[in-house]
Amino acid sequence: MRTTLGVPFLLFTSVLSPLCAEEAIRADGKIVRGSLHLERGGLLAFVSDKGETPIPLRDLRAVRFPQKRLLPLHTARMHRITLPGSQSITGQILSLEGKNLTVRTAWGATLAIPRSALDSIGPLPGYWFETSDDFEEGLTRWRVQGHPSTGEPAVSGKNSVILAAPRDALERTFTPPLPAGRLGLSFRELQSPAKASCNLELTFLQGKSKHAVAVQLSGEGKEFLCTAPDFKGNSFPGARTEGWHRLLVEWRATSIRVFLDGEVLWYCLDLPSPPELAGLNLRWQTAQGGQPTGKIACDAFGMERAADARRRPQGDATQDECWLREGSQLFGTLARIQPSTVEITGPYGTRRLRWEQIRGVFLLRGTPTTETQTGEQVRLTLGLPVPEGRAHLEGVITALDGKTITLTHAILGALTVPRPVVEQIEWLRPGRRAERAPGS
């Protein structure tokens, strides 16, 4: 039985019987199973499986949607973008130049968000960006063996790194080791291996002891495997399939968890002492006899450090701001935001910063105007294969079927979201006054 990542990481056993229907939570706390419908006149109503009288959404606390496996977003850095009214979007920053921020969302859409509507941009809650590599600048950050190359195919940017059997290998060491965090890597098998397997091996320190956790990314078998001989963990081999895959490894004070495409591959929850990541290597292992062959592409490598939430110091409400990881603040005008860097201009000139140096950026926003939108105002909670990535958007649902939900948003316009991405819908009130960015 496989376990999904769409629930809190500790609750591995809670998904053994996933929901098969949507659930309405009544005002008295009782749960009704059925499905949400858009009735004539644009009103939302919940129809129970028992065929009872439809319940208006306004009479419910919320409607929860079945937990579904969510496809991963192949990016080295996952950003959280906040909008007016405690709304947020999770996705990959593409660019901010001029009036719009371009974002690839967790559900695969590309949005242009007016700069004047942005509140902040930063890493997911509870993390800082530690290091990343989309292999657009070669392999200068790695210790290289053999002759790995960069080029197509790529899933993030223009290049991936391509490793061929039997000798190509990459290695990174971390000094000091990383005490708690998360690592992601996208990979795709380009040539089926023979007499060889390609593994990502992570080296963890516990005191003075070294322990390895190895994930087989490419091999002759029919399953993806994770092995950790020194730990008493639980393994859930996954069926090997073609195409791009996303590996995610998370380690905390007493646990290590390995996920593949949003499903648990291996975990150990009762480590005797905190693990610290000291290094990793990507390499081919060969079997005796015959000529080893195989080829794999890797892309969108990213690491995040677990971080405690801190209160942001008081800023300057008349300027943009970069809040740096070491605690200081830079005020000025954000001239450009890109996937890997931020440029801010002020009395000090122009500073070009990597996202790994930044806690968050906060943008000067004009006073929003308001307008009354027709139809029922709702709040959507959108899921992601990591709980910290949940997004929240408000607007009017104008279309709804078995596959998608269309939300008309005061700033972003009409958004079509795959229904499996939606975790919950809450009724706000009819004709709620929604903020709009100046000039939008």
Describe this structure in words.
- With 440 residues, the chain is mostly beta strands.
- Among the domains are: 80-125 and 308-362, no CATH class; 130-306, Jelly Rolls, CATH 2.60.120.200.
- Helix content is 0%, strand content 56%.
- The strands form five sheets. Strands 4-3-2-1-5-37-33-34-35-36 form a ten-stranded antiparallel beta sheet, with no helix packed on it. A ten-stranded antiparallel beta sheet has the order 9-8-7-6-10-31-27-28-29-30, with no helix packed on it. Strands 11, 13, 14, 16, 20, 22, 23, 24 and 26 form a nine-stranded antiparallel beta sheet that branches.
- β22 and β23 (256-260) form a beta hairpin.
- The N and C termini lie far apart (49 Å).
- Mean pLDDT is 89; it is low at 1-19.
Query: What is the makeup of the main sheet?
Result: 10 strands, antiparallel
Write down the overall mean pLDDT: 89
In whole angstroms, how far apart are the ends? Answer: 49 Å
Cα-based radius of gyration, to the nearest Å:
23 Å
Can you tell me the CATH topology of one domain?
Jelly Rolls
Strand order of the largest sheet: 4-3-2-1-5-37-33-34-35-36
Helix content, binned percent: under 10%
CATH architecture heading of one domain: Sandwich
For the record, what CATH class of one domain applies?
A: Mainly Beta
Main structural class: mainly beta
Beta content comes to over 45%
Sum up the overall morphology in one term: globular
Number of helices: 0
- Tell me how many strands there are: 38
Give the uncertain stretches in residue-range form. 1-19
